[in-house]
Structure formats: C-alpha cells, structure tokens
Design a protein that fits this description.
With about 220 residues, this protein is α+β, with helices and mostly antiparallel strands. The protein has five helices and eleven strands, in the order αβββββαββββααββα. It has two domains: about 160 residues, no CATH class; about 45 residues, no CATH class. The protein is elongated, with a radius of gyration of 23 Å.
Length: about 220
C-alpha cells in the first residue's frame, strides 16, 4: 500500500504540524515535572563522575510517561544492606519545549545523562541514565522529541539549592536506617566516616552486642 499522498518528506510546514501535535499530546496526556541540571564541582577526570556535584536550579516542564502501567525496573529488592528500591521510568519530552523551558535558561542543548527529574506525584527524584533522540525515528524526515530512560536517584552527598523546598529537603531527608532506629548520615560535627560515633550509637541502643557473652561476637572462637 502506498504512503498517504497528502504528507511528504522534508516539507517544513508538515513537519511543524507533526511537532505541534506531538507537543499538544504531551501537554494533554503528560505530567508536570521539574528538570534539574547537574553542576559538577570536583569532577574525577578518570571516571567522569563527581559525588560532590550540586543542583542549583529547577525548571518546570511537562513530560509524557511512556511506562503507563507504573514504574518499571526490579522494584523493591531485598539486598545485603536492606530494602533497595530500583524503580525505573521512561519519559518523553518535546525538543521544542525543552529548548524553550530548560535549554535557553540552563544553556544546554539537550537533556544530559546524570541530570535529575523531579516527579511531584510520587515525590521522587529520577536520574537520567540514557537519552534517546531518534525515537520516533525521523517522522517526515525530522525528530521532535527525546526519550529519557531514568532510574530512581540514589543520594550521595549532592548539594540541593534549587529554591524549591520539596526538592531541597532531599538532602536532609536521606538517612540510613539501622533496625528500627534512624541514623543521620552526617549529624552535626560528625562525618559519615567517624566510626567511633557510630560504634557508640549502636552500643547505646543495643542494636548489636559485641561482648564476650554474645556467641556471635569476635571474642568467642
């Protein structure tokens, strides 16, 4: 069967029509998100990462959730350090809208791997793992959207100063839970590597018993 003769390849007017329809669909069926560009503070040139990076701005923009049945990924997994949440989500954002709402302000030409997406409905932050710019593949000879493959963000001492209280509390809310007791990662005056502090904390709350009467202690061989 031949193609529709009313639509032709590489015609700017028809490409513009497809782009506007794509934007309208995302605005109608999508959700409001916040895009957070990552700023590297002390980049490791060898590994290309920076655990002290910061997020200083947030840009509201609508995105379509391609994974309409819910979060993808492995879900909640019981690991050696407790419950690990490995939710994934696939988002579609219009190229024109990204340029208007994010790119022109943040001075970036495309979504970048490592940047974050704040999803208000689940109050979650998702990190962009991969950006696909050729899906859908050249409709009428042009590209109109980005597909963002994202995974639930794992906090690692990043600094949040976006001015949005719901996002910035991520830094203070990320805590480590030992048993039924919540331990702040960095209490005042104590660093995450201060073993004496955590050893005293654990002993005071009787979470572990390292005395000789404990059959599992190091002193009983």
């Amino acid at each position: 069967m031949a193609r529709n003769p009313h639509f032709k390849e590489d015609v700017s007017g028809e490409q513009k029509l497809i782009e506007e329809l794509s934007i309208e669909i995302i605005k109608t069926m999508g959700k409001d998100m916040v895009y957070l560009p990552r700023t590297l503070v002390n980049e490791d040139k060898l590994f290309g990462e920076d655990n002290t990076s910061k997020f200083s701005d947030g840009y509201p923009i609508e995105m379509y959730i391609q994974s309409i049945d819910g979060f993808e990924g492995e879900g909640d997994v019981l690991g050696k350090f407790g419950i690990e949440i490995k939710d994934r989500i696939t988002l579609i954002v219009a190229k024109q809208r990204f340029d208007e709402s994010v790119g022109s302000y943040a001075n970036i030409s495309r979504p970048n791997e490592g940047d974050l997406i704040y999803f208000p409905l689940s109050d979650g932050l998702f990190e962009i793992n991969f950006v696909e710019h050729e899906n859908p593949f050249y409709q009428l000879g042009n590209l109109y959207s980005y597909r963002l493959d994202c995974e639930l963000f794992t906090y690692s001492h990043e600094d949040f100063e976006t001015g949005d209280s719901e996002i910035d509390t991520t830094e203070s809310d990320r805590q480590r839970v030992v048993g039924d007791v919540t331990v702040p990662l960095d209490p005042s005056g104590v660093t995450a590597g201060d073993n004496d502090y955590y050893e005293d904390f654990v002993q005071e709350d009787n979470i572990f018993d390292f005395t000789d009467t404990d059959p599992f202690s190091e002193g009983n061989y």
